[in-house]
Write a structure and sequence with these properties.
Radius of gyration: 27 Å
Strand order of the largest sheet: 15-14-18-19-21-20
Distance between the termini: 55 Å
Number of helices: 15
CATH class of the largest domain: Alpha Beta
Number of strands: 23
Strand content: 15-25%
Number of domains: 4
Length: 489
Amino acid sequence: MTVDRNLEYLQSLVRELCRLSDETEWVEFKVGNEKPDTIGEYISALANSAAYSGKVHAYLLWGVEDQNHDIVGTDFKPLQAKIGNEELESWLLRLINPKVNFRFFEVEIEEKCVVMLEVGAAFRHPVQFKNIEYIRVGSYKKKLKDFPEKERELWRIFDRKPFEKEIAAEHVSSDEVLKLLDYPAYFDLLQLALPESREGILKALQADDLIDKGNAGKWDITNMGAILFARRLSDFTRLKHKAARVILYRGETKLETVREQEGGRGYACGFEGLIEFVQNLLPSNEVMGQALRKTMPMFPELAVRELIANAIIHQDFHISGTAPMIEIFANRMEITNPGLPLVKTDRFLDSPPKSRNEGIASFMRRIGVCEERGSGVDKVVIQTELYQLPAPVFETTDEHTRAILFSHKELKEMDKADKIRACYMHAGLRYIQRDFMTNSTLRERFGIESKNSAIASRIIKETLEAEMVSPFDPKASRKFMKYVPWWAK
């Protein structure tokens, strides 16, 4: 379900869990036993069992008898509990790896207090507590290593189920589906007529794997449906932290923030609004074109669109607590996404695109956000050359990928690294266009007059020394020398 946990919903959920005929592998009932270590072990066991059972969440309830599921109440107050000076929730989060979503709720039913711990299903890796993995076997908590068959099956589940097909909200009514998802935007973006019936709408959403049939006539909203078409990403527990964030700084450092905005809608239905918001924050520059000086945006819109689209599509959704981020400085723009790229950054220009989110990538291509072939980096490089900007930088941190666009610089203001990077990317761009870099083409790229060809020759020489380009034919005369990127030899 969604994260809108009002009292009526919580009471209904507790009663529904109590009606289960017996403890399942994804539900546990307790009256007492509030030991912190026991709770941590149960978080591990329930997270892994939820994944094993195909559930979005698992639950641990205090104040409900184990045998008959009668509500008897509890004095346990998890939000007030501490381990030393550390709050219980913070202590548990520190000892659980990988991080998994869990949340305590205190619910009053029949004048009795019930505490419910909701635990998100494990993904990609089994969840550990204090470096030990647990799982539920029947109604018992056991160490996962003692049940190798279950461990192998759990890994098979992680391997075969992509993020897009995981469930963002389960047991949702037809009305709730249409309330949670921006279905008019879906038909509008695909240029399809809106069906006249609710059944027609749901059938179309199901055909695109945005929703799936659940139990008892209900629906499950997939991660793909939610991340692309959520009216509010905050309605989905596991996805609420995946909204793109835009930050505008004053000057060239992060010392002073002028404006910060977090997106609220799904990536597909909110993409144009995100681009418009970013464009409105970008200052303009006066640059010298081929014939005259004119005012232009600091960064080409097409380059901005491509890099933001790439950040959204190719991110690693399984890295928790982080989302695509667009940071705007006085002299540059940095676009960062969670996850390391599947190809090396110095091969972004020529490598076929690889995405860990093929379903999302395919859909975004269908609505024209990105193209079927190519990564879009070639467009970014073309645009930076047309605007005579420094070449973009593509880099990685421990868990993130970052693309950096720079504002206009005169050639004399560029340092050696700027010139070598631009020369390398120019050679790569010419090569994928079935052409070669020459002194003449590099002069055009930098706006160097022909009488100053020695400047271009020096840049080429420095790039050769950096082993970023190579002569196409080393025996050719210097006047007719052609160059290719290092990976083309």
